[in-house]
């Protein structure tokens, strides 16, 4: 299960290390912010991000992807922490990991094929808006000097990648952090820094067993939370995998990624961390910085811990304006601008699905709920489309009526299907031509059998012609 393939670790060393350093820095404010959302100390989110990133580097199924504590997961922990305390959160995190491992072995990731491109567009666009919106509180705190630093930071992250040589050697987000930190230090600028976000841990995480009663009552408390966390975590992870696949032109093992996320969350729970999953924003920072191997993920996790435990005094020199500039870049990079550019060219149903996902996510701040609504809406549109495409042509040859059926026949067509036939017509024979049709389910077989039975009750002979092999096999099994 542990991946030790050389090409997955050491084929892109310099760029992966530099990208990992950038991501490690970017994880600090988000981990602290997500801890605050969940109602726990900053070290819980920081320990989680370290444990999950390092573990997933070895056990994950998608190289160059970043997993850590996330906002979507933190939102689901608020009630648990408030009502039952931190130890129950650790136990829930472990159970979440166990559920995800089981889901990986049962290949639940296959369900991603039911997520349409429109749902993916809505998901990433909503996430991009949420990432940008998360920077607004910090933007509102800024004075004129901070805005000048922010403008310089944005200029760096967008201009440096286009410079020859240096833009290819060093990721622009890292240049942004270093340059703005040095300027702030030299000028003695009085502005918010990363150290203002909260207290950092001063020790390494240690193995601990959650201090809770090991009984059925505890299980009943943590199981609903664990199922919800596991579902949301896997959903966000699979969506992130899709985006990283598209960005890098490579494929990852989704089932292994599910199992890897489970192992990572078990490690986090036993090390005093909260549950997490893949992070789209940080993964985009990673791959756009040139990362392609597991080394970048490992470096991000290790560097994060080294910073907050051993080098936390140096964080005092990193202006929040630098990190806000990077996250704004991530938001704009994450947003799928083609979905807006080609809005008028896309089918109306696809646009409705995309906008519905965006609106639901923004209103509820629940990515899973938005995706679920998008999948259901896509399915509804598909059913209506298939149903409307079922056509029947009828022709009378003497005392023989020929019905030529075209389209996909399934449960939704049942009510409409009977309207195609005239059971009171004075004829001797009916021929039902299914050459251009396909029968999909038991409901379709039964309604076809009912049509035959109705005609035969009127002493009309029925001939079925053109039944394809798959439809014939299903009919034989049912009837």
Model description:
It is a single chain. It is elongated and about 100 Å long. The two termini are 46 Å apart. The longest helix has 33 residues. The strands form two sheets. Strands 3-4-5-6 form a four-stranded mixed sheet. Strands 1-2 form a two-stranded antiparallel sheet. The protein is α/β, with parallel strands linked by helices and 479 residues long. 45% of the residues are buried. It folds into two domains: 372 residues, no CATH class; 89 residues, Transcription Regulator spoIIAA (2-Layer Sandwich). It is built from 21 helices and six strands.
Average pLDDT works out at: 84
The counted number of beta strands is 6
Number of helices: 21
**Helix proportion of residues, in percent?**
55-70%
The biggest beta sheet reads: 4 strands, mixed
Characteristic terms for this protein:
elongated; 479 residues; Transcription Regulator spoIIAA; 6 strands
